[in-house]
Amino acid sequence: MPAPLIEMRGITKSFGAVKANEAVDLSVAPGEILGLLGENGAGKTTLMNVLFGAYAPDAGEILIQGQPVRINSSADALAAGIGMVHQHFHLAPRLSVLENLLIGIPGKSGRIDRVGGLARLAEIGREHGLTLDPDLPVSALSVGEQQRLEIVKALFRGARLLILDEPTAVLAPTEVDGLFAALRSMAAQGLGIIFISHKLNEVRALTHRCVVLRHGRVAGRVDTPATTTSSEMAQLMCGHEIVPPARGPSTPGAAVLTLDGISTSGHSGTVLRGVSLAVRAGEILGIAGVSGNGQRALADVISGVLVPGAGQMTIAGRAVSRFSPRGVQALGLGRIPEDRMTTGLVTNLPLADSMVLPRIGTEAFSRKGLLKPDAIRAFTEEQIKAYDIRCPGPMTRAGALSGGNLQKALLARELAFDPKVLIVSQPTRGLDIGAARFIHEKFLDMRARGCGIIVIGEDLEELLMLCDRIAVMYEGRIAGTLDSADATVARLGLLMTGAGQAEEAA
Amino acid sequence: MFRLEARTSTPAWFNLALPLLAIGATLILCSGLIALAGAGVVEAYGVMFSASLGDSYAITETLVRATPMIFTGLAVAIAFRAKFWNIGAEGQLLAGAVASCAVGAIPMPGPLAMLLMALAGAAAGAAVALVPATLRVKFKVDDVVSSLLLNSVIFYALMALIEGPWKDSFSGYPISPPIEDSANFPVLLEGTRLHLGVVAALIAAPLIWFLIVRTTLGFRIRVTGENPEAARYGGIHVERVLISTALFSGALAGLAGVGEVGGVHFQVMSDISPGYGYSGIVVAMLARLNPLGVVPAAIFLAAVMTGAEAMSRATGVPAFLSDVIQGTALLAMLVALLFTAYRIRRVGVAK
User: Fold this and answer.
1) Element (H, E) at B113
2) What are phi and psi of A280, to 5 degrees?
3) Residue B218: its chain A contacts at CB < 8 A?
4) How far is CA A480 from CA A461, A463, A496, in A?
5) Residue (of A82, A85, A199) closest to A150 by Cα position
6) How many other β-carbons are positioned within 10 Å of the β-carbon of residue B296?
7) Given an 8 Å threshold on Cβ–Cβ distance, is B215 in contact with A345?
8) Cα gap B129→B133, rounded to integer Å
9) Does B350 touch chain A (CB under 8 A)?
10) What are phi and psi of A333, to 5 degrees?
11) CB-based contact A257:A315 (threshold 8 Å)
12) Which of the four pLDDT bands, split at 50, 70 and 90, describes residue A504?
């Protein structure tokens, strides 16, 4: 085995009383793809932030090619040949691809070396299949392309070790394949790669070796991920065995949500073109599709945020006459938003505020314009208890909670009002196995109690496990609907590319 | 070497400690200027203190001066909670002053006159604040710029009024006719200028606190300010909330003008406000947008203003020092706010 490119020894980092990392050892050899696995809050991101210079470790040392180094800033890290692709990109949206690459790179005598930059960009594109149009503004790039730009940026700066923090969370399945091909090609050239994820199938497919963190410590090391089973790794991550919940047979009742010829216009993003669908009581309907094919508009129409230009919608048998979040909610709709942080809750205010946000004007939480602070507090405390939301109390800043706990909180705030229809988008994105499992169980629970559920998602495995039927969206239309008994990843994938439409029409 | 590191939580005592820290830093920084002007630092601050808070008369004078800043501070605090960037409290104050002066000049029973002056002043301030709010809601015009520029529009409109139709034809001074004597706000303590408006301001602060913390409108204001997207998805009419906030904010700033006309000057002139609208921003920031904190913050600035004048007479340090202290206090507070989100950590230097 070649000498390690980078080595972390005995890294310990505490935040107050919480030990985020404790005596963690880790090394990456040239040409190696190392998986870093762990549940949310296990300390993966902290460890990488130590390596990238964002945090100073309390103890331990970092060695680069055998030499101890001190990394105090991202500039130090870059100079040491470490590049990082964060979950949230650090790009200037109004500048072009090339300009973003050249930020902070001194050119000859203070001028920007455009020609040299173009040549290097083309070279990186050729080598690893990471092609980008140098003149497009970053705001015009898809999320996948922005990620590609972040990777190219790291390579551009001469990174020999690349850290990717949950890179696949924002990608569609087809984009994941492209990313993996690029990463393999980089490794083949002798780069070291640290791939952070909690998606076991991805880690098994891509990495050469992996390190599993739990509660800030190394819980185990897997030298042959490809031949280790997912459940063995899951056990290392969680400390106990995880069994996927079983979806029993159901006897769907009457339709609780119907859409008939819903079309939208003038909305940013894909518009809906005559979408019709129905969800019955006690049924889970999945909406699959490559992101950007109208799922956002569909969720917005159903949750009353977007008023359709044409078509009818009914909830629990009653026609929706007024499209507004409060209007559809009054008819019995619950919604769990796609993006917890931006559209779901208010990170800077106490959790209790987010818990009552959609229903603040109702009798439960206010009277004649005056809040009922005790009721708000009691409701939040009740949900914290019922859903095991880990936080110090109702007045904790919502943003201080982990993703899994926030998702539980959002679920709790809707389910507490016993919705007849529940619409959820990407319910487990960014959640670890344990939290995802909990969310899935709750959905099946609601299904058994006669709630109609729509799950919009990109993770086909998840949809197949959870849903009774799966509809596929393509360019603002329903391209086809399959019973999950007949559905396979391959058949759904075909519909997702639009290829299935001819077949359906025939 | 030091570096900033993100905090995971903010200790509660920071809310009290930060403004005090900012004020302490301000006084230390400004002592350099006092020394440069050739006066003793301790002596100068001593004069400032005794002239503003040293005896009961000084305290009433400071309270009178704090009153318009309590109103504008509340105006800014409620607006900033909703992230409606109302930099226009100065113009709203002037509009309130003009409207209440016009009403106060009409002969009628005193109590009725005072009530109508307050209503007219609040309405005028609200109407002015509605302009930047509507422009933002309908056309996405930046409210910082529009509300700030509107201040000049209102100021010069006021000048046109007192140089034109309202001009004192006898003396030729650009001042408005006085309000009726019966409309003068009653003085609460014989021999001082402590007028009804001071009490109104001290009552307004807890009322606005109640509005923000305990009402559904306040809830909507807070949520809209912190995350308008989540507010919209949560069924809150963000535009409506912004307009309501602007109306409240403008009305409060307008009341600042009412108090100056009814309780202090009894007429309108060009220097009726020495920038109370802008000071309101400093007050609101020192108070960390908490309406209850607005009262001590306004009293602090008022003490600096009254104290600086006395200090200038006693030691020869220019009274402009009061403006320097105000500006430095705002900057110090903005820096201090950084510590709610970050902590300073010492890091070792490479061996």
Assistant:
1) helix B110-139
2) -100, 160
3) 371
4) 18, 15, 9
5) A85
6) 16
7) no
8) 6
9) yes
10) -95, 135
11) yes
12) very low
DSSP, res A399:
G
pLDDT tens for residues A69-85?
888 888 889 888 999 99
pLDDT at A192: 94
Contact of B233 with chain A, judged by CB distance below 8 Å, is answered with yes
**Contacts of residue A329 in chain B, CB cutoff 8 Å?**
235
Looking at residue B55, the DSSP 8-state letter turns out to be: S
Of A338, A335, A345, the C-alpha closest to A398 is: A345
- Residue contacts between A and B (CB atoms, under 8 Å): 89
Q: How many CA atoms lie within 13 A of B278 on its CB side?
A: 11
Alpha-carbon dihedral sign for residues A46, A51, A57, A59:
positive
> Which of these, B210, B154, B215, B193, lies nearest to B68 by C-alpha position?
B193
Q: Is the pLDDT confidence value at B160 over 90?
A: yes
If one counts every other C-beta atom within 10 angstroms of the C-beta of residue A75, the result is: 11
A477-493: average pLDDT: 88
**CB B179, CB B101: distance < 8 Å:** yes
Helix pair angle (B238-259, B216-226), 10° resolution: 110
Q: What residue in B sits closest to A370 (Cα-Cα)?
A: B215
Q: Which fold has domain A6-238?
A: Rossmann fold (3.40.50)
- What's the CA gap between A69 and B316, in Å, rounded? 58
- Ordered by start, the domain boundaries in chain A are 6-238, 255-505
B347 touches chain A (CB under 8 A): yes
Phi, psi at residue A416, to the nearest 5°? -60, -25
Among the partner-chain residues B216, B222, B347, the one whose CB lies closest to the CB of A366 is B216
C-alpha–C-alpha distance, residues B337 and B351, integer Å: 34
Contact (CB, 8 A) for B238 and B221: no
Please give the pLDDT value at position A505: 40
pLDDT tier at A232, thresholds 50, 70, 90 = confident
Query: For an interface test with B, which of A71, A88, A340, A371 has the most B Cβ atoms less than 10 Å from its Cβ?
Result: A371
Identify whether the C-beta of residue A432 lies closer than 8 Å to the C-beta of residue A426: no
A264: enclosing H helix or E strand: none
Please give the structure tokens belonging to residue B135: 């422009």
Selecting from B219, B233, B350 the residue whose C-beta is nearest the C-beta of A305 gives B233
Q: Do domains A6-238 and A255-505 have the same CATH topology?
A: yes
Query: What's CA A345's distance to the chain center, in Å?
Result: 16
Total number of residues shown for chain B: 351
Domains of chain B are 42-339 (1.10.3470)
Place of tokens 């949750």: A303
In this complex, which of B218, B230, B235 lies closest to A345 when CB atoms are compared? Answer: B230
Q: Measured between alpha carbons, how far is A53 from B95 in angstroms, rounded to an integer?
A: 54
Place of tokens 């299949």: A129
Question: In CATH, what class is A255-505?
Answer: alpha beta
Length of chain A: 506
Q: Verify whether the Cβ–Cβ distance B219 to A324 is below 8 Å.
A: no
B3, B220, B233 member nearest A343 (Cβ): B233
Task: Provide CB contacts within 8 A for B15, sequence distance 6+.
Answer: B288, B290
Task: Give A212's strand partners.
Answer: A37, A220
Which ranges constitute the DSSP H helices of B178-320? 196-214, 216-226, 228-233, 238-259, 276-286, 291-315
